Request: fold
Amino acid sequence: MAPTRRPSKSKYTADRGIPGAFEGETVTRRRFMTGTAHGAGALATMGFALPALAFAIGPIFNNDTLGWQTVGTPEMFPDDNYIPAVIVIAPGIGEAGNSTVYIRARNASIDTTPPTQFNRWVAISTRCAHLGCPVRWVPASERFICPCHGGVYDLQGVRVGGPPPRPLDRFFTRLHEGFVQVGARYSVNSELRAFSPRDPGEPLDGIGQYLYPSRPSVRV
Amino acid sequence: MPKLPAPPIPPRFLPQPPPPGTQRGRPRTPLEKGAEAGKSAVDWIDERTSLSGGVRWALFRKVPKGTNWFYTLGSATMIAFLNQAVTGVFLAMYYRPDASGGAYESVRYITNDVFLGQFVRGMHKWGSSVMVILVFLHMGRTFFFGAYKYPRELNWVIGVVLLILTMLMSFTGYLLPFDQRSYWATIVGVNINGTGPLIGPYLSDFLRGGPEFSATTLSRFYSIHMLLVPGAIAAMIGAHLYLVAKLGTTAPPWLRAKPDPELVEEQL
Reply:
């Protein structure tokens, strides 16, 4: 036996015999009050939840550039060896906000990227491209070596061993009133093409640049 | 299906007859007066909350035959969490989440100068490892005893959420001493999060509070470590315990289940 269907009710409250119904009314007052109470509760919750959430994720969209930092004079930097210099990457927290940069003059015999006013010196970041440990330049072997997981890079900062997925990051450099200055960070792929800075562990070859998009906080 | 009998009320909670040889109107001893004051205080609360029923429901449960010491691993994990919560509250009285040197200095002060500071910090530090080990032992017990099966799957899922939250506590707490090990381990940990495709880079920015490790990072980790995750863990433990009391515990797998003959239909 097929289940009997309940007779369909009219959508008008007046036809359903609800006391005090208005002409043409389709929503009962009980239903209206329930909806109003739920809506007011949702609105009040949004009132504190949305600003708090935006407050927490705000730094993702905040782009504070630190500007150019003087690291020395042109004669300090040879073109066949790196000289370390300390720059600030996070201001206001003392030594914890400093980082080392290795700098040498551009050498036309090994630096094949076209010369511009921003690459007359090659400034290599010490942030290992694997997971961010500090690499060290070893002049005897002409290699950057990472102490954490054994990443090894050559004179150009290109990976020659270990787990790093891309070369070491670089910084823009310029000559300003007789001083060498270091500017914004940028990442490079294995052909030394420049990209907006990526965090360590993110490859930039092939599909990598699309799987790991640049972030609004450090886009250059 | 017949209704199972309610668990019996232990005799000591039943009203006691007056001891033999005493008569009504005898002056009560101070001990009896104290006991009655305590009883009336409990009764006052119970009359207004009806809590005693819930307490009896949660505590005076039947447990299956064969229940053994392995069944205490969950309670041990909870005690480890309570240890972390209590010692953490007191460590927070001295700790300063200041990335320009204040954090390390405050931890050094706790360790070297505060009375029992090294002991309480040690309880928190070693207790965290104990908690992680106990979580895994408890999880292993549940797995190997088959206690995750119907109808307890949801409690397994809640347990996995608790495991993830515990790991998050370990990750965020590791930064707080702010020495070289903390700093570089956090750099590496945040960058591992960043290797997730598509959302990884934004997750790193969220964790650091910006593109570089800065003052915000430490206060962010501190807030997650002592406010956000402990609250979530406490709520999840509440749900976990509710389901344990609601569903009961399982017998160990080496015991053959012998159902009550009254509850089984006669086999022909």
User: Anything to note?
Assistant: Chain B has a mean pLDDT of 92.
